[in-house]
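Let's inspect one such protein example.
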Amino acid sequence: MSAEPSRRRTWGRLNPLLRLLILTQLAFNVGFYAVLPFLAEHLGTAIGMAGWMVGFVLGLRTFSQQGLFVVGGALADRYGVRPVVLVGCVLRIAGFVWLGYAEAAWSVICAVLLIGFAAALFSPAVESEVARQAVVWEESGGGGSRTRVLALFTVAGQAGAFVGPLIGALLLAVDYRVVCLGGAGVFVLVLAGHARLLPQHIPGRERVEVRGGLGGLLRNRRFLALCGAYGAYLLAYNQLYLLLPDEVERATGSQAALAWLFGLSSLLVVTAQLPVTRWAGDRLDLRRSMAAGLLLIAAGFGVVALARPAGWTGSAGLLPAAGFVVLLTLGQMLVAPAARAWVPDLAVEGRLGLYTGAMSSVSGLIVLLGSAGTGSLMDTGLPPAVPWAVLAAVPVASILLLPRRSRAAGQQ
């Protein structure tokens, strides 16, 4: 059975709100990935930042986004999806424009923080509502597990991640400022579309106070364990922007192949996410799906760590990097939908936005610390395989953190 008919059947059974939210993820990623893959090179060459500083800025961007998701999630629980998404889009537009004109380190950092905080508003609002609607779809007999809806959400995001770098690479032929302005232009269109189409109030979503709920979340050891494992995955995924560009530059002498490797990752998700999700759903519970994905991610780092001492260059030198991208992407296809599907079972009633945001916040802190550490490893003069070997150990160790049972219904 091909993936395309499966996608069409699932899509055809979704309500209009779910379709809008899934297309929202597509648009978000087109604008975001037109800019981000080329940021590290811009910071290192045009701005002249040291490797540890580049790693810190990239980690700061992730932390200001993922780390503040808990704020965006709580605001979405209180005020609803629409206002939080619209404000986030306005801030993302301002951040991209600022980044395009930033030249000093402090200005770059401020722009990156604004870009991250914008996503901290709109992403948890969208993600938590997709997760809630996916549970409703599952319980109403929509045609399968909630992970199918979340997998389709991932496919849409990766389709945007496939198109975005290609647009960015074309605009980069002018300069990085044009790349940033192009990304801002995408979010202008997103803002206009959602101001018109996103409902003021979504049926079944009850608003709660901003305060409250955090104490119970911090005592929920099972949920925090899931956050730790997801953070290890996110740290690994962010090496697409730190370790991978360095490896591509070493192997080929330029960043030209980077867009194609991002395209390879996105194409794999677009074509294989739903079959992989269907296969995993028939054979693995949520914990085992995440464990298998983390092992694949570790293997991807291991491929480069083992090949790096050989010092291959040219087309042969890109093979380990391509192997890393393939294994990382396969691991992502198992980890990301399973983690998102697990959160509603661990969240307290009415606080799904808070819990969705908190998972990203804890993960963002892990990425901030881990990215700065990775950047330092790159600057220390250690054998070049060392950062890759260290990163290979992180997903393996994180498997020990995973809760033992897939369904906990908000229990600690």
Notes: The mean pLDDT is 84. The radius of gyration is 20 Å.
